[in-house]
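Why predict the complex rather than its parts? Because the way molecules touch one another can change local conformation, and only a joint prediction can capture that. The input here totals 222 residues.
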Amino acid sequence: DAKTTQPPSMDCAEGRAANLPCNHSTISGNEYVYWYRQIHSQGPQYIIHGLKNNETNEMASLIITEDRKSSTLILPHATLRDTAVYYCIVRVATGYGQNFVFGPGTRLSVLP
Amino acid sequence: NAGVTQTPKFQVLKTGQSMTLQCAQDMNHEYMSWYRQDPGMGLRLIHYSVGAGITDQGEVPNGYNVSRSTTEDFPLRLLSAAPSQTSVYFCASSYLNEAFFGQGTRLTVV
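Output of the joint prediction:
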């Protein structure tokens, strides 16, 4: 799996967009970018994933650069409940299940 | 749907005791995993299973056993608890590109 690099912590004002960066300069052509988050010692929660096109769902948007060496997770209107540790993971997609390697992630604090 | 259910939520063990952490899922997923998370760190993979009767080791398997007799259940056994096994344990089931996690078991070994 390609190594990912994330800032250890970030702050964001409530109601503003939170932009969480991730570098994955050694990503290979068949590896996807996944984002999970972990709220206060709960189990991690899937947010979004993508290969090369930008993706959006009800939780967030994922912007992947054209060279795929970095990506940004965007929470468009952050709330206090978005305070969590966010994990960027690069993995090959499978046709069944798989494990994920969780590094230290980015601790996002949404401030009132 | 209950998703992934872990029991107990909290447990205190004495050094040398054994116990089983329970994990059950109702999504009919073949792939299940156990992770541990130590303070301030990411999750580390202990054991995983790709289906009933099939298990394999992850990154930190020593001191733990697993078995998978049904699709729904994937228990984790601590053979002889040690203080180094104090941690939060997460069970997950996975299908395609998404993993679903339980709420965790907080284990303290004294």
